[in-house]
Structure formats: structure tokens, C-alpha cells
Amino acid sequence: MMRVPRLASAGSSMTAPRSDSFSNLPLAPEQLKNLQDLGFAEMTPIQARALPEVLAGRDILAQAKTGSGKTAAFGLGILHHIDTASKEVQALVVCPTRELAEQVSKELRRLAQAMANVKVVSICGGKPFGPQKATLAYGTHIVVGTPGRLLDHLQKRSLNIGQIKTLVLDEADRMLDMGFAGDVQTIISFAPGKRQTLLFSATYPDEIRRMSATVQHKPMDIKIEDQHQSDVIQQLFYEVKKHERNAGLLALFEHYKLSSALVFCHTKRDCDEVAEFLNQHRIAALAIHGDLEQRDRDRVLVQFANHSTSVLVATDVAARGLDIKSLPTVINYELPHDPEIYTHRIGRTGRAGEVGQAFSLFTNAEQVRLNAIEAHQGEPCVCDVLESLDRDPDFTLRAPMVTIEINVGRKQKIRPGDILGSLTGDGGLAGAQIGKIDIFDHHCYVAIEASSFRRALGFLSDGKVKGRSVRARRVR
Predict the structure, then answer these.
(1) What's the rounded Cα separation, in Å, for the pair 395 and 81?
(2) Which among 102, 150, 166 has a CA at the least distance from the CA of 323?
(3) What is the DSSP letter of 308?
(4) Rounded to a whole number, what is the largest CA-CA distance in the chain?
(5) Domain boundaries, the chain
(6) What class is the 22-223 domain?
(7) Residue 412: is its pLDDT beyond 50?
(8) Which of 195, 203, 202, 192 is nearest to 219 (CA)?
(9) Topology of domain 233-388, per CATH?
């Protein structure tokens, strides 16, 4: 795949605009300054191809994978056309999963920092309907959500998209895979016929072409050919017998001394069993799949992102939209049936100029899948045997951080700085002992170095945050 260029730092020289510079776009000066402050000095390939068309108001059908920068590609266009004087919904972004919707909402808010009074609302299932209805009634400019819950609000008239300027279908192929085609078509029936429609898909099956033909008007077709380069992602395949998968997985950790990994399984049951197996062998792991309640899913994702667990075991659907900045290793517990899914899986490592590694276990019965991957990549797969691995039987992988949950959040006007200030002030912790802070509506999570978490928990149990007494507990 084409390697996504490294983003230049905020202080990079802007004396001679490059062809992939945001300064070549008709964006407001304050937006250009915000992009520079955020580290966006150069456009990724999908941004360079799509943004001029999006800003010009054209429909686009774009092939773009998670991590390619597509959110900025459509987000900057949405924000460019927003009328903040109006309280009507002006843009709708439809995502296949709650995790992706939350990630997109977060990124849109970052991109909107330079604009006054832009309101972005996330509307997803798994959360109470009433508070969402009240938020929508207050007025919002951009709505991001999943098909089922969006359709509920539209049918109950708590959401009106009759005046939207832009409709975005993000990861449309996954929405089709998950059976949302009918819901998406119904959602679109509530939108005005005259609008800009942006359709992003990681793959281009016939169903996507048919959807585009029914919902778009003369779209610009943008396809970024991005095969993984061997110098970016090291790919190794290990043949095992069916009953050796767990032993093979453990051997990879013990040989390569892995610090963090995302392990892909086909089924929810496999995810739970593999995570349990790893924990039994002193490797901190959590599983995520569709059977988890939303709050439990949030906890798992937060713990993996903030290094409170070292390994995440996931199905493809559950892993969609993961916002993990640096992921060194991806492991396929078994090969997927579709080679494009394999490409999407391993594309989660080796991003933004970093080198990653992808390991795959396969049985003789999966040889046809291996052949399909080779044909898709245009080169032979490098295979090895487990016996070649030099294993360390004493290897352990404990998480360096611990997550504490606090019972206040966004609705109580709590910001990350409030948590950080309390812990480094009266709490007496050093800033280096405090990791990622995630704020939700009515609770928040803070990562603390494992050696310091008891001190932090003790302070939060007796102390205050922003003058408010709080309850805190360790997330296990």
C-alpha cells in the first residue's frame, strides 16, 4: 500500500507551499493556523485528491481506509460550508459502528477548534434515547451516528435532516456487510435531493457502485492504490496444526517479546477464549466484540488506548474505528476469507512513517486463503515454522498503566486539565505519572502509572476535582 507521509511538525517552514500543502486550499486563515497547530502540515494522498473536490461542493466516491486521513478530507469540507448563525443540522455523517462514530466526532471537534460555536453531536445506540433527543432539540450543526439510532430519531421526528448540505457515508462497505443497506437508504429518504454526498469505502464491491448510482450525482471517483510496502510492515506467516493455534500465538509473544498487539479472531467466542488464554499465561489481554454493552466496550477501548492492557483481541467489526495512534503489532489468529480484509487488518500497524509487524497463523486447510493474499499483494508470502522461534518461557507482559474511573464528566463541565490539575496539585503526582485522560458525558477515565495508581486512587477518594467531591474506582 502507498505509505501515508509523515505529518510535519507545527513549526515546519511554510515559505514555499508544496502541492500537498493545506495552504493551497481555499480555507480560512484561522483554519490553516489550527491545522498547523494540530500538526497537519501536509495532506495525505486521500486528502490531496479529495479535499479540492469536497470544497468545490462535488460528490465523491472514494476508496480510503481507516488511518488514511479521510475524516479530515470530508470534515474540513463540512466545516468550510457551515453557517454557525443557523441551528439547523447542516451535515450528517453515517458510520457503521459506535466506535468509529465517536472517533469521527472527536476529530471533527478538533478541526472545528478555530471556529466559534460549531456544535457536533454523536448519536449512537447503546446510550439513552432521551438525553440525545434533548441535545438535538437544543440545536446542532453536525450529527454523527450509526444507522439504527439515527433512523430511530428520524422516525420519531427528534432529528430533522431536511436542510442538510452534506451527507457522508463513512466506511460504506462495512455498513453493507453489517446489513445496514436498507436503513441507510431509509435515512437518505429524509434528506433533501439537492445535497453533496460523500461516500467513503475501503473496498469497491459491486454493491458500493450500485449504492453510489442511487444516492450520488456524477461523483468524482477517487481511488488511492496503496499496497503495503515490505519496508513498512514486516509480514510473516506461520503454519500450525488446528490444535496448535494457542501455542503458536504464545510462541510469537515469547520469541518477539511483544510489547503490545491487536489480535484478530473470527468469532466472539474465539475472542473471549484467546483473551482468557493469554491472561492465564501472564499476558494482559482484553476482548472486544458485539456482545459487550456500550459502556463495557468503551472501557476496553480506553484501557487498550491508554496502555492499561497490552493486548486487544477483537473481531473485525469490533475493531472498526479504533483510534490507536501507534500500534506495533497485528496478529491474525487465523487468516480471513477475503484478502482485502487481511490488508485492512495489517494496515493498522506501520502508520505515519512507523515500522510495524504483522504475524499470521494458518493451517493447511487455509492454504487457499494464503494463495489469495499472495495474488492480492502480487508477491509471495514469507512463511516460517514455529520450531524456528527461540522462546522465552519466563516472558510476561504486564500493562504499564492502570485506569481509574471517576464519576464526573462532560455534563459536569469537567475537562482533562481539571483532572490533571487535581492530581498534580493537591494529589502530589508528577505529570509524567499520568497518562491519557478520556472524558465521557457522565464519567471519565484517567491512566496512571501502575506504581502510582494507589496513591492517585486514595487522593481521588478523599479529594476533590474542580471543587467537587468525586467517587473513583479502578477499572479491571
Answers:
(1) 54
(2) 102
(3) S
(4) 67
(5) 22-223, 233-388, 401-474
(6) alpha beta
(7) yes
(8) 195
(9) Rossmann fold (3.40.50)
